[in-house]
Amino acid sequence: MVETDIYRKDLEELLAGAGLSLVELNVSRHRGSVQVRAVIYSPAGTGIDECSRAHRLIQPRLQVLLSEQDFHLEVASPGVDRWIRSDREYTIFAGRGVRILLKEGGEWLTGRIVQAGPSTVTLRGTSGERTVEYASIAKARLDYAQEGA
Questions:
Q1: How does pLDDT run across 101-120, given as a tens digit for each residue?
Q2: Do 3-76 and 88-148 show the same overall fold?
Q3: What is the percent of the chain where pLDDT is above 70?
Q4: What pLDDT score was predicted for residue 127?
Q5: How far is CA 115 from the centre of its chain?
Q6: Distance from the first to the final alpha carbon of the chain
């Protein structure tokens, strides 16, 4: 298991207790320094207050996990048009608008994420619901314009 994956599981549980989701975690080591970047999300909105709360929760836990005092932690929101980087993000962003490009045919699907399972995501758009396998998705991003759909 990769070092970041071990930290991710621990921090996901910690943040879930505060109503936050850990979308992405990057831990990198450069010249004796450790850089940590966490992207967090709250369905009620992810602003500076949520990022600050996450920072206050994550900082002491990373001091224990990394066994180091010398690290830099950056906490950010995913942004309104984030590129979706993993299948697990569809579950995190359930209810949000999304644009999905299919591998075959280059068709773009738009709508809100209704449900995300282990291998598929269901969108509700203007033409109804459509279920898509993750394997058939070339790329996807959050789409704030679909929030009213």
A1: 999 988 899 999 999 999 99
A2: no
A3: 95
A4: 86
A5: 16
A6: 40
Q: Alpha carbon of 66 to those of 18, 32, 129, 143: distances in Å?
A: 22, 12, 45, 36
Q: What is the mean pLDDT of the chain?
A: 91
Domain 3-76's class?
alpha beta
**Residue 1, pLDDT score:** 42
Structure tokens at 67: 């066994």
Domain boundaries, the chain: 3-76, 88-148
Q: Average pLDDT for residues 61-78, to the nearest whole number?
A: 87
Phi, psi of 117 (to 5 degrees): -110, -165
Helix axes 3-16, 48-66, angle to 10 degrees: 130
User: What pTM, to 2 d.p., does this model score?
Assistant: 0.86
Q: Which residue has the tokens 């830099």?
A: 72
- Look at the domain 88-148 and name its fold: SH3 type barrels. (2.30.30)
The strand ranges marked E within 16-136 are 21-30, 33-41, 71-76, 97-102, 108-116, 120-125, 128-133
CA angle 8-113-44, nearest 5°?
Answer: 65
